[in-house]
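W.,

You were right to be curious about this one. When I first looked at the sequence I had no strong expectations either way, so I just let the prediction run and decided to look at it fresh. Below is the sequence, 357 residues in total, followed by the output.
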Amino acid sequence: MLLSNLAASLALAAPTPPAEEAEQQAQLDQDIPQLLEQDAIPSVSIAQIRNGKVVLFAAYGEQSDGVPATPATLYNAASLTKPLTAEIILRLVSKGEIELDEPMDRYWLDPDIAADPRHALLTPRLALSHRTGFPNWRDGKEGLRILRQPGVKWGYSGEGYRYVAHFAENKSGQDFEELAQTYLFKPLAMTETSYSSKDWFKGRIAVPANAAGEAVQPQFASRFNAADLLYTTAYDYGLFIAGVLADQGLSPAVARERGKIQVSMMDEMCQGKLAESCPPNAGFGLGWQILAFKDETLLMHTGKDEGVFTFAYLNRTSRDGAVILTNSDNGYKIVLPVLERLNSSPAFLRYLRGQIQ
């Protein structure tokens, strides 16, 4: 697949960028097509947030064989779905519809764990910070199980996010996709984002590719999955990042909770040589990994499905951020080159380099 002759295609109208953004865009236009070809990545879609606003968005490569990617191309967000789900839950908390620390079994109890008394300990806070004790995904034969005491230890779990979404549905009496539209997508004008497959996806999908650059079958959700398979554009996700930076839709108290490290991950992330580039404190918050450097705090998340890699971050201090969506198992290789060309935080870049090495 030849990518070097494909330039960025902008399907959305944008104002003339300031000089710095124009220079960064020119650098991306020059370098990214070659990097995609070098690493067998079919395409990448990028959004940059500066001072709380989306200031740059572009797409490079091909969404499918012979079809150029544009900013209107839809990507599987993979686990970047989770921060959106967390934000919906936090907006419900801010409106007084649910509480962060209420037992979820009053409104939702998965039959698989009904006989385990520890279900009474499960709360939205524990679900959003990956402390439910659930596995990442339930076993196909044994169903859902609580593997460890809830609230004690961090353990990444998509099932925890699915659980809190079902709880929100049952307590509110509304389908979770309706809640998403009411509390997040419509307020942020995110018109190109959906938890489940829609007719308007047709002809717009970034087809996933394996490490050899070979196409693999895209995955879709017929009904919402609160932890995975949301489809979006980099621009739409950039609008979400801007909303998070503005604490839009959150009460001051809930916004403060979202910015707190709920569980430290220094032992997992910063041992041995990795400690050289780590911040003084790091862990997981409510929907995001939090990196607390000396002079700045960043929130980040990644996503990985078959043939998909996605990345997003925001800097609470500078109010900057970026979204990088790819349709490739090799997509992680393009993250640092893009962030370097967007002049991201030196401390953050140093941390990411350390984690990759």
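Here's what jumped out at me. Residues 1-15 have pLDDT under 50 and may be disordered. And, maybe more interesting for your project: The longest strand covers residues 53-64.

Coffee later to discuss?

I.
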